């Protein structure tokens, strides 16, 4: 006959055995993780030993797994893995920029030789198809490196996120930059039919056919990109482009004022104050000395030799 003491003892023994099994399982899992980390470290060291010392980007240019394999390997941690690939993409670009050291634009990254940026962004969005920042960054930076890869990336984003009209804007922007105005118009028209899309998407579709290469449409494209961008670099780039286009328009106005003065006086003005009334009448912003201000608030420099306005060295409107 089983006593209460025996039952309690058996229960305690069972609990102790279960606890031992749980500790053994945890130890085994920890051992597997440690072994995996050790193997990964050993593989990394082996690869580092084989690559040229002067190649600081090799680790970013070796695609060990395909996007779909990365998705399967990440198990339930797709979001975390996508964040890792996204950071890896930004580090890749940052290191290329640091090594290059010269002047470049986000719209022309060819000098940096970023052959695998498309693959990194593809892996990011394969792991997290709703990663909007990756599509946005790819739409601006990737076309000059691999335009077709940029198109494929954003088209995939549209398939995965049909309710996101901003992706249609990104794709339209890629086609517009390539001079594919008909394709851009088609994309904007499709985007305008997405629930919640703003009215300007429909207007942009109409303008693409008539004003595809115009400066005014270019300004509107960059203004919309600035307003909708979430990535700080993309936002800053778009703001600079808007300022540059505004500056071109201002300098054309100033050129007309200077040409009128020269026609009357027979020479270029020696200082801005001589044409300040005409500049003010043209609705240009002037400082206290009568010098016209560029979009960044810095006075234009008066080049007496060519009789034209030029950007001052301090201006923030210069190409970036």
How would you characterize this protein structure?
The protein has 2 domains: 183 residues, Serine Threonine Protein Phosphatase 5, Tetratricopeptide repeat, CATH 1.25.40.10; 62 residues. Helix 6 packs antiparallel against helix 7 and helix 10 runs antiparallel to helix 11. By secondary structure, the protein is mainly alpha-helical. The protein has a two-stranded antiparallel sheet with strand order 1-2. About 4% of the residues have low confidence. Strand 1 and strand 2 form a beta hairpin. Helices cover 65% and strands 2% of the residues.
In short:
By secondary structure, this protein is an all-alpha fold.
User: Major beta sheet, specifics?
Assistant: 2 strands, antiparallel
Q: Just give the CATH class of the largest domain.
A: Mainly Alpha
Low-confidence stretches: 51-55, 57-65
From the N-terminal CA to the C-terminal CA, the straight-line distance is 89 Å
Number of helices: 12
What is the molecular shape? Answer: elongated
- Beta-strand content bin: under 5%
Order of helices and strands: HHHHHHHHHHHHEE
Total strands? 2
Corresponding CATH superfamily of the largest domain: Tetratricopeptide repeat domain
Radius of gyration (CA) equals 30 Å
CATH architecture of the largest domain: Alpha Horseshoe
CATH topology of the largest domain: Serine Threonine Protein Phosphatase 5, Tetratricopeptide repeat
| Number of domain modules | 2
Structural class: mainly alpha
Mean pLDDT: 82
Helical fraction equals 55-70%
Arrangement of strands in the largest sheet: 1-2
């Amino acid at each position: 006959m089983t006593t209460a003491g025996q039952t309690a003892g058996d229960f305690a023994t069972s609990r102790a055995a279960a606890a031992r099994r749980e500790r053994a399982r945890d130890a085994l899992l920890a051992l597997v993780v440690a072994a995996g980390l050790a193997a990964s470290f050993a593989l990394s060291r082996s690869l580092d030993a084989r690559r040229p010392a002067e190649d600081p980007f090799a680790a970013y240019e070796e695609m060990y797994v395909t996007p779909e394999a990365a998705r399967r390997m990440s198990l339930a941690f797709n979001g975390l893995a996508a964040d890792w690939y996204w950071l890896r993409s930004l580090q890749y670009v940052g290191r290329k920029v640091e090594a290059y050291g010269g002047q470049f634009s986000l719209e022309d990254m060819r000098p940096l030789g970023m052959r695998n940026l498309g693959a990194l962004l593809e892996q990011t969005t394969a792991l997290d198809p709703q990663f909007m920042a990756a599509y946005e960054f790819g739409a601006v930076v990737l076309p000059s490196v691999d335009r077709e890869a940029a198109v494929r990336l954003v088209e995939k984003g549209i398939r995965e996120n049909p309710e996101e009209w901003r992706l249609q804007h990104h794709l339209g922007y890629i086609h517009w930059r390539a001079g594919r105005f008909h394709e851009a118009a088609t994309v904007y028209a499709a985007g305008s039919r997405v629930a919640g899309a703003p009215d300007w998407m429909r207007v942009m579709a109409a303008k693409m056919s008539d004003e595809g290469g115009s400066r005014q449409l270019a300004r509107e494209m960059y203004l919309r990109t600035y307003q909708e961008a979430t990535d700080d670099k993309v936002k800053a780039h778009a703001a600079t482009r808007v300022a540059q286009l505004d500056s071109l328009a201002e300098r054309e106005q100033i050129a007309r004022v200077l040409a009128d003065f020269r026609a009357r006086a027979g020479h270029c003005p020696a200082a801005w104050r001589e044409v300040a009334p005409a500049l003010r009448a043209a609705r240009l912003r002037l400082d206290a000395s009568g010098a016209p201000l560029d979009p960044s608030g810095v006075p234009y420099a008066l080049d007496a030799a060519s009789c034209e306005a030029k950007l001052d060295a301090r201006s923030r409107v210069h190409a970036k």
